[in-house]
Automatic annotation (TrEMBL):
PANTHER family according to UniProt: BLUE COPPER PROTEIN, PHYTOCYANIN DOMAIN-CONTAINING PROTEIN
Membrane topology note: Single-pass type I membrane protein
The Phytocyanin domain, residue ranges: 23-123
Stretch forming the signal peptide: 1-22
A Pfam family matched in the record: Cu_bind_like
Compartments where located: Membrane
GO molecular function: electron transfer activity; metal ion binding
GO annotation (BP), single: response to symbiotic fungus
Highest taxon of source: Eukaryota
Species annotation: Quillaja saponaria (Soap bark tree)
Name of the protein in question: Blue copper protein
Amino acid sequence: MASTQFFIILAILAVFVPSISAKEFLVGDETGWTTNFDYQTWAQGKEFHVGDKLVFKYPEGAHNVHRVNGTAFEQCVAPAGTEALTSGNDAITLASPGRKWYVCGVGKHCEVGKQKLAITVLPNIVPPASAPSPSQSSAMRGSSSIDPAWMVAIFGILMIIMV
Ligand SMILES: *[C@@H]1O[C@H](CO)[C@@H](O)[C@H](O)[C@H]1NC(C)=O
Ligand SMILES: [Cu+2]
């Protein structure tokens, strides 16, 4: 029966490991989201993957969070059209790979206080064969990353039945 238990454990791991691997990053750690903190140093050596979360913590009203492009990041221009996150406990799920830029749009916090963060988001750990087609919406990505794991789980269960 030891092999049956092994397959059950394997099947359970296959289902849950992809979701466990999604990480939450508290931006600036205990310092949170504020001025005069080196967010580039903070981001150094960290690996950000699709599905991970960034949490920006700050006293509500003191700061905000704008996602911007690279040009706006360099020039510290918070886009007028887009809505800022303002709750003081703003969670952003990294939905796509690539370079991402965030700035504070309050006063000269970005320009003078260097309250800006640039990161590179890496593709999910799931093998590329299971990646959704480009036509699928980004909302589908979270659930589709579980699919191969389910296949392994079903395979494991089939093995248990056959043994
Ligand atoms: C970057 O963002 C700024 C401000 O929203 C906008 O004016 C500019 O056209 C954008 N640049 C690119 C290359 O998308
Ligand atoms: Cu600010």
